[in-house]
Every structure is written in C-alpha cells, then in structure tokens.
Amino acid sequence: MPATTDAGEIFAFAPPYDRLERRTDLLDAHPTPRPGSAVVWRLVDAARQEHEFDLLRRRTCGLPLIVLLPPPQEILDTLPLLNAVPMLQPKGVLPDGRLATADRLRLLLAAPPHSLASAVTAYLGRRGVLTDAATRTEIHRIFELAPEAPSISKLARRMYTSRRTLGRHLSLAGLPVPSHWLQFARLLHVAIQLQNDSKAIFRIATRLGYPDGFTMSNQMNRVLGIRPTVVRQHLGWEWIVETWLIREARSGQLDRRRLREWL
After folding, report:
1. Domain count, the chain
2. By Cβ atoms counted within 10 A, which residue in 57, 115, 177, 183 is the most buried?
3. Angle at 47 between CA 23 and CA 39, to 5 degrees
4. 35-44 core/surface letters (b: 16 or more CB in 10 A; e: else)
5. Mind listing the pLDDT tens digit for each residue in 103-155?
C-alpha cells in the first residue's frame, strides 16, 4: 500500500482490499453504499482539512470511516480536528497512519463490534428508524437473542411477551413486523461470523441455528438479495444494514421518509 505525504487526502478502501485509492466519489449520495467500501482519512493538518471534515460528516449512510493519525511528533497539528473526530462516528482510529497496512485495515473493517445489538440499535437510532426508548429496548433484545431464538414464538418467550404484543408494539412504531427483524438479526450475526471465521459456510450456519448452509444461504438471498460468498468478500456490517433498510422500505414495511441522514 503506497504511503502519501499529501495533506488533505481522502481514500477509498474497497474490495479486494489490496490498496488505498485517492477517491472522493464514495462520498456522493447513493441509495445504498457500495458493498464493503470504507473511507480512510489521513489526518495531518487541521488548518487545511476542515472542508474534508465537513465532507466526511455528510458522507453516505452505511459508509464506515477509518481515521489514520500522523506520527506522535506531528500530532499537535491535528488537535483542533482530532478533538472533533468522535462526531464522525469512526469505525476506528489507527495511530501513525504510515504504518497502516492493507491487512490491518481489513481486520479493522471486518472486526465485530463489542456488542452487535448495541451497535446496531445505536446506528438505527441515528438513522431515525428507532425513535423511542421502548422500541430501542425491544430491538436491542431481538438482536441479543437472535442467535439462540430461531422462531418468533421462542423469541417472544425469551422476551417475556407474546408475539402478538410484540407485533403490536412494532406496528404502532411504524416498523417492520417481528419476523422480519428476527430474520435480519440472525443473518447479521451470520455475516459477522462469515467475515471473521474461515470455517465452511454450513458449519457457521448450523452453529447459529440453521439446519444447513443451503437453507441459510437461501434465506439471506431472500431477505438481503445477497449470498454468503458476497458477504465474505465485502467487509463490514453497516452496508448490510443499509441494504436491509432499503429493501424493507421498497416492500412497504418501512416508511422511507424516516431514513434521515445518520450524522
């Protein structure tokens, strides 16, 4: 991966993840982010990079950001913007960007969040999908229980409610039906495993409660329009969430007007 000494560079990091490209077109608005793409920002001089900060703040939803820092002796030049970096919701901040290799960036992009349920719930809150505390709690619980609750009936029991009550709550909130949430949550857990475990697809599928890899693959294709091999080749989970949201909106399960910009 070639290093650069140019200030104010925004890079694209996309499949096959072998190099950084100087491109800002990823920041253009798209209905869905390009699968597996990320933006890498090399922060070197705050005085010359304020306009880039604004570009990144308005970037396409579902497009992860990785920030590369300069060597310690040059960090003072970045402090005004560095203090504001959390506003950009970066996926990661790597010290001394000149040491960032393609392998390290791939690992960071594929790395699962500490709590997938918390990460996805927070993301959906920023997107305007989850607007009240009660609904956020229910969706958080669905993502927590998804790996061990293959059916709505079992999920409802684990949530100490009935499937009818859960469905009524989500309907009143203008959200997809519980079965759609459960199917997607299970598949998102599968996607995280696929990107971080080289085991055969059928082993990952059965580990997460599917009868076989064929069944899981077919459900992933039906719910998301993609296959497990695509998930393995296109890292990250944010683009998968966006893919599902758009498909739910197109099917009438989710009001597209609720999908506000996430930052």
Report:
1. 2
2. 183
3. 25
4. bbbbbbbbbb
5. 999 999 999 999 999 999 999 999 999 999 999 999 999 999 999 999 999 99
Q: How far apart are CA 206 and CA 196, in angstroms?
A: 16
The answer on 123 and 42 residing in a single domain is: no
Q: Is the pTM of this model over 0.85?
A: yes
Q: Specify burial of residue 164 (Cβ count, 10 A radius: 0-12, 13-18, 19+).
A: exposed
Residues counted in the chain: 263
> How buried is 175 (Cβ within 10 angstroms: 0-12 exposed, 13-18 middle, 19+ buried)?
buried
Classify residue 62 by its DSSP letter: T
Give the Cα separation of 117 and 144 in Å (integer).
6
| 192 and 232 Cβ atoms separated by less than 8 Å | no
169-206 per-position pLDDT tens digit = 999 999 999 999 999 999 999 999 999 999 999 999 99
Domain boundary among 56, 83, 110: 110
* Burial of residue 141 (number of CB atoms within 10 Å: 0-12, 13-18, 19+): buried
Q: What angle do CA 128, 64, 213 make, to 5 degrees?
A: 90
Question: What is the SS3 assignment for 154?
Answer: helix
The residue to which tokens 């000494």 are assigned: 5
Residue 139 sits in the same domain as residue 233: yes
